[in-house]
Inverse folding.
């Protein structure tokens, strides 16, 4: 059969394989069973209803809340040779009539429409005359008052059941708590329905948090790694957006502001310039991004702390839609917590205040987290996230050699907190340490203390980072309301020299040292040429470059150097219509390039080599497990692989779980926990299982270190 979903996937969209859940969802829809799809941004929701729409005989109506989203979808479909049309208030009368006619005549089978237009009697009457096979509701969370974006018109869509008796109903959203999911299904009177929830883990996003010390310098240092690459910077206020955008321009970046204080036309213009790769950076308040599908956003920088993890997740989700690595950096400062807190306190409704506070706390926990960032992030969305080391966040990638012994500095800081009475915030404590002449210091007689000025050898910024570390490690507690710092039970051991403190200090320039990405395997020169060509064509047609081919498609061309139509079509993302329209032009370029750089002869060789390289690289845990069995100690392995002890131990655990033998006798000496406690921990393992260490860590009041737990787990599993 020529119209199988898989066939359409290749022929129209140019992709070889479905992403997780897509095939199941499509089959489910084709069987006319109502379907709720919950998938994070960029994973590929649209295909799930677009492929059925091409297979169904009748019309598919797609309801979308935003004009820009509709326009983007329709433009993308047209690039693929699919004739979809729009009916909304933003098009001219003539266009409206023309589009209406296309739907009536069946020339176009996919109609994108705003909810209020769809609910008009004249439109419904027109649709009565056609067979509507599918009603898709995009951004379906707008149906629910419990969602963050409720739209009253969406509520009425359920009533269309009686009108579209042949239609299957499909709801799509990237954010929905169980409560909202239930609401959607109820409101749309779903029958024989199923829910499909994709993982919230976006593996290609590199997550980092840095303490904010000098935001502008940190931003400039960060941007050095992203010459000419698109990115978004989110700020707290309009004023900050304007200031930063101006500053970046002074430093030679093409940046534009975006916030609710600008006129519609200005906002629209700036967004358009960004989407079409005519400027590099958008500096925005949270208002930016809802309606954009730009696939080559390479970074998202949060200049301020977002107020909850939902916003953070949504904002970072705007990067890396093409699947290539994208970096998300959050500049974290305690001052922001107070600012957000202030806004929360202004809310009149008490319930709202409580909820907002909870949300903020979860956000702060994420920023302070010392474990893999994906753990607090993904579990927040109710997903069971099992991986302990993702390899794509700062905490998982911190290298052993970058860890510094901070014990003396920690002792100085903790003593200063103690001597000043445990009632002051970090700024004052740092003023005392650095011997500041601030009035508050003299007023409190803190210049008379023995700790006054003992920290002059480090900058205020460095002390800020250290105070943060101490909070993260549970050596200090910060009062949520007043910001004052006080010691914990654990601090005594450090002050008495019984425990050391290690940490990773990055300030300013240093902080921008990009976490090493795997060597880019593509021919960079060719890639740049293809990108230039793409921009040229896009400008001529006045469409965003990513609509022609994504960065990922171009990167593949620069790996495989396709020489024939067949080879070009075998590249993921090149379908038949796009090949005719653009692929041919790129094919000629690539051929010329190969002749010029004498690549043709080596091409097969190169491909083979790549395949071989891939096969030869052993997974890390196997490499580490084998090295350990050959007699290397854990300590030696941390040096050899340049990673933390806990990471080595996690790899050994994985190795063990895959059924390999492990030489465990030498591990016992790493354990520094009394035997009776060891026994108790083993009991816990047998009761609770060994999958997660955190519950046990908590149960023992953080008194048994993770390193110890890692080792004990391995010992337990091999007993
Ligand atoms: P969402 O609506 O979930 O945010 P989109 O539907 O816009 O995501 O898809 C994101 C990107 O992933 C698009 O560029 C799309 O073409 C691409 N994509 C979708 N499905 C696949 C697939 N099976 N293989 C490769 N790329 C895909
Ligand atoms: Zn991680």
């Amino acid at each position: 059969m020529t119209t199988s979903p898989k066939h359409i996937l290749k022929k129209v969209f140019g992709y070889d394989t479905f992403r997780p859940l897509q095939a199941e969802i499509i089959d489910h829809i084709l069987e006319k069973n109502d379907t709720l799809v919950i998938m994070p941004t960029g994973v590929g929701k649209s295909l799930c209803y677009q492929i059925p729409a091409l297979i169904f005989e009748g019309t598919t109506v797609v309801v979308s809340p935003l004009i820009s989203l509709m326009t983007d979808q329709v433009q993308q479909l047209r690039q693929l040779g699919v004739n979809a049309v729009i009916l909304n208030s933003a098009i001219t009368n003539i266009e409206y009539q023309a589009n209406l006619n296309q739907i009536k005549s069946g020339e176009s089978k996919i109609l994108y429409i705003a909810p209020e237009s769809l609910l008009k009697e004249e439109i419904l009457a027109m649709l009565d005359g056609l067979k509507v096979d599918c009603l898709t509701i995009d951004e379906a969370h707008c149906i629910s008052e419990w969602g963050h974006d409720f739209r009253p018109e969406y509520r009425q869509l359920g009533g269309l059941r009686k009108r579209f008796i042949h239609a299957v109903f499909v709801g799509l959203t990237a954010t929905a708590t169980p409560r909202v999911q239930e609401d959607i299904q109820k409101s749309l009177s779903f029958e024989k329905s199923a829910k499909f929830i994709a993982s919230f883990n976006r593996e290609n996003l590199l997550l980092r948090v840095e303490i904010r010390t000098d935001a502008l310098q940190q931003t400039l240092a960060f941007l050095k790694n992203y010459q000419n690459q698109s990115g978004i910077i989110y700020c707290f206020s309009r004023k900050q957006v304007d200031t930063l955008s101006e500053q970046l321009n002074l430093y030679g970046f093409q940046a534009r502001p975006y916030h609710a204080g600008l006129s519609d036309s200005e906002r629209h213009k700036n967004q358009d310039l960004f989407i079409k790769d005519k400027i590099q950076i958008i500096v925005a308040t949270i208002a930016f991004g809802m309606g954009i599908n730009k696939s080559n956003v390479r970074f998202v920088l949060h200049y301020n702390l977002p107020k909850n993890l939902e916003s953070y997740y949504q904002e970072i989700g705007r990067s890396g839609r093409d699947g290539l690595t994208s970096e998300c950096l959050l500049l974290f400062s305690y001052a922001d917590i107070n600012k957000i807190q202030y806004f929360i306190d202004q809310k009149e409704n008490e319930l709202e205040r409580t909820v907002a506070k909870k949300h903020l706390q979860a956000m702060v926990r994420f920023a302070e987290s010392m474990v893999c960032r994906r753990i607090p992030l993904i579990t927040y969305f109710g997903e069971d996230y099992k991986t302990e080391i993702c390899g794509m966040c700062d905490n998982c990638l911190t290298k052993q050699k970058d860890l510094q012994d901070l014990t003396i500095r920690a002792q100085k800081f903790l003593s200063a907190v103690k001597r000043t009475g445990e009632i002051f915030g970090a700024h004052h404590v740092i003023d005392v340490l650095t011997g500041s002449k601030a009035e508050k210091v003299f007023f409190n007689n803190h210049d008379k203390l023995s700790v006054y000025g003992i920290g002059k050898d480090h900058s205020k910024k460095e002390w800020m980072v250290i105070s943060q570390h101490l909070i993260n490690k549970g050596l200090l507690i910060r009062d949520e309301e007043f910001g004052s710092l006080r010691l914990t039970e654990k601090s005594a051991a450090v002050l008495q020299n019984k425990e050391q403190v290690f940490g990773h200090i990055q300030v300013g320039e240093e902080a921008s040292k990009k976490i090493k990405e795997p060597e880019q395997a593509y021919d960079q020169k060719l890639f740049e040429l293809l990108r230039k060509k793409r921009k040229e064509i896009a400008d001529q047609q006045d469409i965003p470059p990513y609509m022609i081919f994504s960065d990922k498609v171009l990167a593949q061309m620069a790996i495989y150097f396709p020489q024939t139509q067949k080879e070009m079509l075998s590249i993921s993302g090149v379908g038949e219509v796009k090949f005719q329209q653009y692929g041919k032009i790129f094919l000629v370029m690539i051929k010329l390039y190969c002749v010029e750089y004498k690549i043709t002869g080596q091409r097969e060789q190169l491909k083979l080599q790549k395949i071989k390289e891939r096969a030869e690289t052993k997974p890390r845990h196997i490499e580490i497990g084998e090295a350990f069995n050959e007699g290397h100690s854990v300590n030696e392995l941390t040096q050899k692989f340049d990673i933390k002890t806990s990471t080595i131990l996690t790899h050994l655990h994985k190795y063990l779980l895959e059924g390999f033998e492990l030489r465990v006798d030498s591990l016992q000496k790493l354990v520094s926990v009394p035997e009776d406690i060891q026994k108790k921990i083993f009991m816990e393992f047998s009761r609770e299982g060994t999958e997660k260490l955190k519950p046990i860590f908590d149960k023992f009041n953080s008194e048994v270190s993770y390193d110890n737990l890692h080792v004990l787990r391995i010992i337990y599993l091999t007993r």
